[in-house]
Amino acid sequence: MIDQQAGTSTGTISVTSTGTKATRALGIVCLAGTALLVFLGLVGTPEDEVQRDTVRILYIHAPAAWVAYLAFGVTALASVLYLWKRTRSLTWDRLAGASAEIGVLFTAVTLATGMIWGHLSWGVYWTWDARLTTTALLFVLFLGYLALRRMPAEPEVRAKRAAILGIIAFIDVPIVHQSVEWWRTLHQDATVLRRDLQVQIEGIMLFTLFLGFVVFTLIYAWLLLHRTRIAVMEDALDEHGLELALEERRAEGVEAVDQSEGLAPA
Amino acid sequence: MRDAGWILGAYVIVLGGIALYAIRIVTRGRSLAKQLPDEDKTWT
Q1: pLDDT by residue (tens digit) across A147-203?
Q2: β-pairing, A2-3 with A8-9?
Q3: Taking CA atoms, which of A121, A253, A254, A255 is between 20 and 30 Å from A174?
C-alpha cells in the first residue's frame, strides 16, 4: 500500500540505517587502523634519505591510488556481469555505480596529494607528465560515467549505457599504472608493484605503506557496502514513486468519469 | 618535521574528504531508511 502523503510504501520501519553489526565492526577496525596509520605516517617512521619528510605523503597517496584502481576494477567487472545475459541483474549495475563514485573520490584525493608532493619535490603543483595526465583523464572519464548515470532513462537503458562506458573508461587504469614505464616521466617508478619484484622500501616504512593499503581497502569495503545499500533504497523509492503516480492518475481518471456521468443529460 | 603544514594538509585532505563522504552516505542512508518499509532493505 502507498502512503499518499509521504509517497512511500507503508509497512514496518524498524531498520533506520544502512548499518549492520558487521559494518559497525568494520567501521571500528577502519578507525583504529586509520589512527595507527596517521601515527606511523607522521611520527613513527623516519624521514627518507632522498625525499626527506615528503615521503610521509606517500603513505596515504599510494594507498588512495590503489583504491581508485580497485574501485574502477570492481566497476568494470560488475559492468561485464551486467552486460552478460546470464548474470544480468540491476544488482551489478548498483555495485558498479557505487564503486565508481568511491573511485572518483579516491582519484580526487590522489591527485590532490600528488600535487602537494609535486610542489614540495619538483617545485610545481602540476606538469603534463604521463602519469599525472592519464590519472587526470581517469578522473574526468569516471566523472562522465557518474554524469551519464544521472541522465533520466529507464533503469535497464541507463544500466546498459553505464556498463559500456564503465568498461571503456577502465582501459585507462592499466595505462595509468604502466605510464611510468612506457614513457619518460617525472613521476617516480612503482615502489611495490614492480615487474622485477624488487620492493624499493623496507622496515617500518614498508609496514606503514602496507598498513595504508590494508586500511584504505577496508575503508573502501565499508563505503561500498553503505553506498550500495543506498542505491537499493533509491531504486525502491523510485519504484514506489511510480506506483504512487499511477494511483494518482487512476484516481484522476475515475474522478473525470464520475464528473462526466454527473453532467450527462438524463 | 620539514614542510609540516603541507604534509598535515595532505593528511587533512585525504582523511577529511573520506570522512565527509562517509558522513554524507550515512545521513543519506538514514534518511532513505526512514521512508521505506523493512522489506525493501535487502541487507536486513
Answers
A1: 999 998 888 999 999 999 999 999 999 999 988 888 877 777 666 666 666 667 778
A2: antiparallel
A3: A121
pLDDT at A190: 67
Does residue B44 sit within a domain? no
Number of domains in chain A: 1
Q: Which residues of chain A have a CB within 8 Å of the CB of B16?
A: none
Low-confidence ranges of chain A (pLDDT < 50): 1-8, 266
| The three cell numbers locating residue A226 | 553503505
Amino acid symbol at A135:
T
Determine the pLDDT at residue A104: 97
Residues 105-134 of A with CB under 8 A from B: 105, 108-109, 112-113, 116-117, 119-120
Range of the domain at B27: 8-34
Q: Is A256 a domain residue?
A: no
Is A217 domain-assigned? yes
Domain count, chain B: 1
Q: Which of A11, A112, A219 sits opposite B18 (nearest CB)?
A: A219
User: Given CB atoms, is A62 within the 8 Å cutoff of chain B?
Assistant: no
- For residue A70, CA distances in Å to A42, A94, A140, A224 come to 26, 16, 17, 12
ipTM for the complex?
Answer: 0.94
CA B13 – CA B17 distance, rounded (Å): 6
Please tell me which residue of chain B has the smallest CA distance to A41. B11
In a domain, A8, yes or no: no
Mention every residue, 6+ apart, whose C-beta is less than 8 A from residue A70. Answer: A103, A217, A220
Would the CB atoms of B35 and A119 count as touching at under 8 Å?
Answer: no
Here the CATH number for the domain that contains residue A94 is: 1.20.120
- Select the more confidently predicted residue: B15 or A259: B15
What per-residue confidence (pLDDT) applies to A239?
A: 80
Please check whether residue A94 touches B, CB under 8 A. Answer: no
